[in-house]
# Entry
Amino acid sequence: MCTFNTISALKEGDPSVFSDLFHEYNRKVYFYVLSKTHSPYIAEETTQITFIKLWNYRQQLDESEQISRLIFHIAKATFIDLLRKEATRERFLQQEKSAEGDTGNTFHIIQSKELLLRIRQLVQEMPPMRRKVFELSRYESKSYKEIADQLSLSVKTVENHMSLALSHLKKLLLFLLLLLHLS
# Structure
């Protein structure tokens, strides 16, 4: 397949070219990711998402690049995002387990739940766009790039919203923690 013609045809929305690319590269992408992650689940998810992104973002493809290079670049970025989301989810589950597993200390469990409730209230009080950026990042584990694309913002704007949100939460949470320890 000639790269220029392939990318050009893909940009024009030719489904047969996309189908050919999928059949040529889907197993290659799968085994590439599997070799890096040793996770069939991550490899399968990455492969599917890679080809969805290839189709959805076909208009932005650089016709001077090799198609294989573009596909594997998308795959690498995708599996890194998935691994990061998985790690975030694992940390959250571990924190919840440790909070629930400490049955001998009901007082700390109640404090933790109150603190989580208060955090959610503080998030709800944020300006709408800052709240949306925070929720997409922290509750849905989206990358800043994904958030920027979804909300039609620049990555820098997303970073600024997150910085302001986290700074605001830290100040208020320090105050709340002090109050909890004093009581």
Summary: The two ends are 71 Å apart (CA to CA). The mean pLDDT is 82.
